[in-house]
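Figure-free illustration: sequence to structure, shown twice.
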Amino acid sequence: MPIAKCPQCLQEKPLIMSHMIPSAIYDYTRGPSGHHISMTPDLVIETDREVQAPLLCRECDNDLNKYGETWLLPLLARIDGTFPFYDLLTKIPPDAVDNGTAGYATARNPEIDAEKITHFAVGVFWKAAIHSWRGNTSDPVIDLGPYTESLRTFLRGETQFPEQVALTIGVLTPSKAQKTISMTQPYRGSNRDWHNFLFYIPGIEFAISVGKAVGEERRGECFYTNPLHPIYVIDFSEDIRGVQRMMFKNAKIARNVHKYMKKNPQ
């Protein structure tokens, strides 16, 4: 194991192989061949490789696991149509329903752990902002600017959640989630007023907005800082498919993926 400064605790330690998207999520997205389809802006390929790099020390990597990943990952949507997180979320009635979107104040639901959900989501965004995770460039996957450091100290429990950052969470219904059993790496969103970034894991989409321009309304929707800890059940499945279509259109398609394209044209 290489010895270097761990970017989370900032101490010189042996670094272990860390995942940007936790390894357990890959098990949800494997096809009949036992491999998963990896989609990036450059390449779409069927592979058993997972995106990992010698990044964190063992203690910091374990902290990301035990303070978020271990709780959330068993609750994701599955190809058989089950979706345990949705079942937990909807045990209480929605607090608001508007034009097909249902808002749930999860602070009223003792089975929803807001701290662990937030720690998981922030951990993925932060890891994407400090490392390239690709061999052909040194640029991080996303650019969180000065908020990268404030999110690091938040993950360490040293500071509060940054004031100019908003984390929002959308959840699909089980029937919609079953049709989008996939995951995306964090990517830049289309908001023009401030920087926003998103990633998707089976059934759940996380979005983070950063910057002084982030509006009061968006900050009020922040899952962590709003005392009601709101989560929204909303149909964004077409957005996920749109991201996939864009990658299929612009990226190089490996030969072992063409068989899927014939069966499921994008």
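We now fold a second protein in the same way, so the two outputs can be compared directly.
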Amino acid sequence: MTPRMRFMPRNALAVGAALALLSTSWMLGCDASSGREVSFTMELRGATRTGDDPHHFITASGWDVTLSQATIVLGPVYLYENAPPAAALQPWWHPDRWLLSAAHAHAGDQHFSGGRVLGEWVDQQAFDCLGAPVALGPFTGTEATARSFSIRLDPPRSPLRAQSDPTHGYHAWLAGSAAKDGMTIRFEGGLEIGSEGTLRRVDGLSTQALLAEGGRFTLTVHPDAWLDLARFDALEPASNPDAPRVIGPTSQPHAVWFLGVRGGAGYTGTWSVPAGR
């Protein structure tokens, strides 16, 4: 082995160690984790993944969709210190490998282990994704960086059922129309999520939220992600030709909707601090 060949591995190790040291130093300098108690708010808002208007979008399968209703029962929401498990899958040189701590599952269970809960909203809201943003709080949290969050999709509790019941007792309700190849299909229906395992949890959603006094965590719901691969022509025609087709529990759009509501593409979490703070 030549001297140059002996030098290269040592050089690579030195570069790797330097990168790790720089990444760790950057993390410690940017994550102002004082651990003190802070007051913050949350906001729920609806948007597509490409724009601010959640009413209209074109799916990956080519359907031009216009929604007239998109309501989902959300809550509680938890902000965690640990990063999603996907951070551990990054290559060794990727910053996330060094800056984000990996999450682990509990033995014998598939619950996401996010570490400390830094902030939480433990109530429930029938959120209209097509309406105005909804402000929640204030809440008390811990000043530190939240790197993931989880959402519970529980059945509507009695207070929600006693109101106008916008989801008709389901976890979510959709109505609208979809057009493709000269065909327009009106649809509506409800989504019910079973209680088995962790079906009613959307865990390990990625965020970078440095909880600070007076800040706001915005949870954006993307209804276009629910229907991206739906084939609306697979819905059975209604007996009344003027009635919308029903998104029944055995239909292909229902299966796609079920996966979309529980998928990471359906939600984003961002943090902001008002000017002057």
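Summary for the second example: Residues 3-30 form the longest helix (28 residues).
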